[in-house]
Amino acid sequence: MKTFTGNIATALSKCLEDAEKKCTKACINTVNIQAGMTRKEGMQNMERDFILRNKFTQNSVRFTQCPKSETRLSRIQATAGVTEKASYMERQEKGGIHTNPSGKELPIPTDYARGGTKNKQVRSAYRLNKINRDVVKGPFAKHGSKKSETVARAFVAKRENKLVRFGRQNLFKVTSFRANGSNPSFKMKEVYTFRYIQTRTPQKPWLEPAAEHAKSQGQNIFNQQMDLL
User: Fold this and answer.
1) pLDDT tens-digit profile of 3-34?
2) Nearest-5° angle of CA 193, CA 199, CA 200?
3) What pLDDT score was predicted for residue 146?
4) For residue 76, what is the DSSP state?
5) Distance, CA of 33 to CA of 78 (rounded, Å)
6) Is the model more confident about 161 or about 1?
7) Residue 163: which H helix or E strand, with range?
C-alpha cells in the first residue's frame, strides 16, 4: 500500500502558509481602514464641536497606512492624528493650560478684531504681526493732565488710523473723534485684551471617540477583508 503522508504534509504546510499570508493582508487592510475612518470621523467631530475659521485645522488631520509589504503581524499598525503645526488640538483633546510661549500676557482678539463675530478669522489689519507697528506711542501732552494725554492719544490714533493702548491690558481702535472745542469726545472699540497670563482649555475629546468607534468595527472589517481575499 502506498502512503501519501509527505504530499499531505506539503499541501497542509502550503495551506497554512497561504492562510497566514491572507490573514496578514487582512490585518493590514483592517488597520488602514480603521485609520482612515478615524481621520474622517475626527474631522466630523471637529466641525461639530469647534469653531473652525478656516480649513487649516481639519486639513491637518492625517493618517499613515501600514505598508502592504509588511509580513510580521507584530509590526502591523496604522496611525491617525494631526500634524505638528496643529499640535494645539492636543490641548483641545485633553484639556490644559494655554500660555504665551514668551511668558507675557496672552494676546486675545475680540469679536471686533474678527469683523464682529467670533466665527471669523482675525482681520488682516489686526494680525499680531502688524499691530505692533500700528500702535500710537506717545506721550503727547507732556505737561497736561491724564485726561488730556488720553484725548491726545485718541486724536492721533484716529488721524493716523492706528491703534491705541490705554493701560497694559487693552488695545483699541478709535472709531470716531469730535473736537467740540474744549470738550472733545471719542468712541473706540477694543481690538485685543491682554488681561490674562494664561487660560484653561476644557477637555473636549474629538480624536479618541473617532478612534474608539473605528476600534469597535475592527472584527467586522477584518471578516469582510478575509472574505474578499
Assistant:
1) 445 577 777 777 777 888 899 999 999 999 99
2) 155
3) 80
4) -
5) 9
6) 161
7) strand 163-165
Mean pLDDT, rounded, for 95-100: 94
Asked if residues 29 and 225 have their Cβ atoms less than 8 Å apart, the reply is yes
> Which is nearest to 197 in space by CA: 90, 94, 108, 96?
108
Which set of grid coordinates corresponds to residue 79? 496611525
Of the chain, the percentage scoring pLDDT greater than 90 comes to: 64
Model pLDDT for residues 126-135, shown as the tens digit of each residue: 988 888 778 8
22/25 Cα distance (integer angstroms): 5
Outline where the chain has alpha helix (H).
5-49, 56-59, 88-94, 128-131, 146-159, 207-216, 218-228
Cell output for 164: 491705541
Closest CA to 71 of 37, 24, 107: 24
